[in-house]
Amino acid sequence: MAVLWLDEISAGDLEQVGGKGASLGELTGAGLPVPPGFVVTAGTYRRFIEDAEIDEELFAAVDVDVDDSAALADAADRAQELIVETPFPDELREEILESYREVGDGEAFVAVRSSATAEDLPDASFAGQQETFLNVTEEDLLNRVRECWASLFTQRAIYYRQEQGFDHSAVNIAVVVQQMVDAEKSGVMFTSHPSTGDPTMIIEAAWGLGEAVVSGAVSPDNYVIDRGDRSMDLTIAEKKVMHEKDEETGQTVERDVPEEKRTQRVISDDEIDALMDLGERVEDHYGEPQDVEWAIVDGDVYMLQSRPITTIDEDETAADATGSVDPTKGLTDGSGSAQAADGSSATGASADSSASSGEVIVDGLGSSPGTVSGPAKIVTKLDDLAKVSEGDIIVTEMTMPDMVPAMKRASGIITDEGGMTSHAAIVSRELGVPAIVGTTNATTVLQDGQVVTLDGDKGAVLEGKTVEPDEETEPVEEVRPQSPVKPMTATEVKVNVSIPEAAERAAATGADGVGLLRTEHMILSLNQTPEKFIAENGTDAYITELVEGIRGVADEFYPRPVRVRTLDAPTDEFRQLEGGEDEPEEHNPMLGYRGIRRSLDRTDVFAHELEAFHRLYELGYDNVEIMLPLVNDAEDIYRAKECMKEAGIDPEKRKWGAMIETPAAALSVEEMADAGIDFASFGTNDLTQYTLAVDRNNEHVADRFDELHPAVLRLLGDVIETCRERGVDTSICGQAGSKPEMVQFLVNEGISSISANIDAVRDVQHEVKRVEQKLLLDSVR
Ligand code: PEP
Ligand code: MG
């Protein structure tokens, strides 16, 4: 048998039907209303290549040096060509087509999707097995199946398997063929409240096909229903567009919702009852709250997909062997979340139970929220890092990139120097470790081993231990990814990432992409200046470091966009690295040799960075965008664009843009638009320091550092206006994008996206939605 029907699949068939096929089979088997379909099994793929005797040639073709991008591209082309050009044997062709004809009387539009079977691959999605074709009919079906098979041999997939040491010939692929539901209405449903865990179902619903809701193209109606008495809280949204199947072409198209249906409630009470019954059945089946995609056609409810709600923390579910979660607590308890998971739990802190005087002994800027107690470890030189154990609180002048491993172990961080945008502040927020910066005197006032309590919200260090270890989960709750009920916003909400290790946490926020990926942390963690590293290890090693660092984040977010900034470290940061003695001495490094200035001066080093981008594009990371830091004018842009072209990057094909970090850049944005930028992104940390002449890292003038100063806001507003006229996207990736007042200002001005810190993403999404709704209301009043 070349195919298995969804209702024939059992748990033991995973190898044959892959993850997607197995889960649809399980739901079908449980009697849930899944649209009918079948799986072309992994064994069929295998027989196809073996019977046609293309297997050996196929595996030989992809046995290449994956760092040679030309060879890799040729290998992928050759392998895919071999598969798509090999004809189906008659018998197999007939069996697949006959199965298709049994779905929807031979006239069905079907979805054709690859289904990974290599469950031992750490990230099967990256193995390239993620092809999806919608609205397929008999005419194209066989080609689509072959294309799914060929997706095993994209450049990315080949590269990945080679790097991970997987044998190409050991990986198989199944293909799911399933009837498309021509939905009149559709949406998502959370079977329990995803952030509070209450026994409350949340349903979002809009007209037409589900992609409009899932992709955020439309704001859906929102129904919050108590599972006990079924009382309901209802918010009806204005639904302007819907996705539908075009009757002639079969393709999905976006259409305007007819006027009378725009503010009409989408699902009736009966339909809500049907959805809730379905939700309860699927939750019972899996024993845990689910996030379900559903569709309704002719009054029948279908379930398209179901997965566990991802914010339920793992320890909670793992602790419960039956898998059943008490939804009233399982979703809200922050224990076992990011902080504990990355090894920085506060267990060390509990060792000392000395009573606390609770007196404030040091204060500074609370830069990463949460409260923890633990022994202070004074770090004055790198050797001291060895004494930092899990649960300790690092006390140091200022953190450096090579301290990141110890920062992960620590339960808290306190520095003498720095402001809200310093290394310690940025990295601790991304790691979810409470921190206080700019205390001026922590390293002298605090004693090594002294037990203290760090309150990262208030910016206060108290003597002794004032919180019990179980209360220390509090900070985690604040920084952990929260509810997956992502408010639908027209303004995109993205996230900032500085250390690749934070990519997973960042992606779990549900952000629309990465608005700023700082590459300097990848370079600084090499502990050598780029020039030194290249001299010792060669250019290829340098490029590979960049490719690997960026790839980790680009993967985590794929296909959401990731805006990667080219190198921007001031010379004083480079000076502390090996090779730093060759850095120029500067009176004021913030006004000196950094960002695009350095790149355009050392075009040889810049070329290696651009080569890294080039390789990522070759590997298929079309979600990577290039952002240029500290530009002043269009001249900088033209010169950088030339460098991109020399590196083989086509500026017309890729998305790239500039940071607006100097008043000069803000005043030159029109000319920069002429030079071809796709986006302008506000670096308000620098824009504020240069507009107000306030050093962002100088704690003595920290009270004068005001991103909401009218002069800064004037520059921001003017740039947004100019860019809107020119069709250039605008964004903010400075720290101020996490502040509600700034969000209000920018959304009102019409910014295209806002990039926030990991811990602020969800609040920013809500704030953006609130401001957008107010704008809408104001426009109709
Ligand atoms: C900024 O200046 O606002 C910015 C985002 O860049 P950085 O903080 O890395 O200078
Ligand atoms: Mg900057």
From TrEMBL:
Keyword terms of this UniProt record: ATP-binding, Kinase, Magnesium, Metal-binding, Nucleotide-binding, Pyruvate, Transferase
PROSITE patterns named in the record: PEP_ENZYMES_PHOS_SITE (PS00370)
Enzyme class: transferase
Catalytic activity: pyruvate + ATP + H2O = phosphoenolpyruvate + AMP + phosphate + 2 H(+)
The EC number(s) this enzyme carries: 2.7.9.2
Cofactor(s) needed for function: Mg(2+)
GO MF assignments: ATP binding; metal ion binding; pyruvate, water dikinase activity
Domain named Pyruvate phosphate dikinase AMP/ATP-binding: residues: 15-318
Region annotation Disordered: where it falls in the sequence: 313-355
Keyword Kinase: yes
Domain PEP-utilising enzyme mobile residue range list: 389-459
Matching Pfam families: PEP-utilizers, PEP-utilizers_C, PPDK_N
Start and end residues of each PEP-utilising enzyme C-terminal domain: 482-772
Biased amino acid composition, Low complexity: 334-355
Listed GO biological process terms: gluconeogenesis
Pathway(s) served: Carbohydrate biosynthesis; gluconeogenesis
PANTHER family: PHOSPHOENOLPYRUVATE SYNTHASE (PTHR43030)
Function according to Swiss-Prot or TrEMBL: Catalyzes the phosphorylation of pyruvate to phosphoenolpyruvate.
Family: Belongs to the PEP-utilizing enzyme family.
Listed name of the protein: Phosphoenolpyruvate synthase
Species per Swiss-Prot/TrEMBL record: Natrinema longum
